[in-house]
Amino acid sequence: MANSGGEVQEGQTVVVQEEEAHPYAFHVSGPRNVASPNWRDLINSSWKNENHKRTVLSCFIQAVYLLETDRQENRTEENALAPNWWRSFKYKLTQTLIDERDGSIFGAVLEWDRAAALADMVLIRPSGAPKAVLALRGTLLKGPTILRDIEDDLRFLAWESLKGSVRFKVALEALRSVAEMYGSRNVCVAGHSLGAGFALQVGKALAKEGMYVEAHLFNPPSVSMPMSLRNIGERAGFAWNRFKSILPSSSETEATSEEGETANTVGLRSWIPLSGYKTSMGLKNWVPNLYVNNSDYICCSYTDPDVTENKQADKENAGPGNGQVAAKLFVMSKGKQKFLEAHGLEQWWSDDVQLQQALHNSKLMSRQLKSLYTFPASQPTQRTPQ
């Protein structure tokens, strides 16, 4: 117990030291071998390197986790942990995305900070560096936000869609806004875990509108889990339906899935070969980047190749796997790991990261991107209010 001014000051000094050594401080747990932009980037931009881009974008997502942690722990501007995770790369925070249900921060828009760059003699934005990034965090297992995070996790588990969530609408509006402001080629969206699920779906929604935004998805949730549960038997199916009935917004999506198909549709019978399209139809590939760890059961199913089980199915299920790339799949190759390590975000900026780019298309990504390559409906699609 402090009972004198000197002891209070000593206690304050300890607090400062604890802040400096916080495990989530950028200088403690951030990347070691990634320098801030400098004049050399004007000649040979670091952003053209895939490892650099992956590192910076994963740091931006970490910043969003810390924005919410800073909020929960009442950190001030002076001792906040989040800012150094974007300032180090000459970006600035221009918008936070708030979940109106609990006031939590689940995303942020970060834009190139021209003033900060000029101060370090970086006269122009390096080639390949996005003008704006929408970063989306995943589930945060802390009291104030865990309920809404888990609610959206269960929504995705049950419906394979996040469109019923208020976060989807907010994220889509934010991404569309910066894409219209800067041009879709100058914008990217990145997310981890549940945030990767949102990033995939808002990116796909914009692709349907003809705006192709670069997407980077870290440990994206697999859609195979609900399909497996649906197929384990009649009794399990009854229990599954009871479970879905208690989830939020079930009435909005129970009859149909995200793409307007029946919920039990497993096959890809509405696929047609992409080679049958002409560029005049305004269609092209939207190719998100997936970062997957095989020891992470939440995302490991994305490494399943897009192959059919028999020749008849092969005729019926022609799709982007037929000579086309559905996604760029980067697989962590560290051998067997514990789940928390395999699902963690920190691995993606680690110095010893070893990735292999998958040569096959992902079956699950093909399902996720199916609607981008099917014929348009006979009637125009109308945007329904959320």
From TrEMBL:
This is Alpha/beta-Hydrolases superfamily protein. It comes from Populus tomentosa (Chinese white poplar).
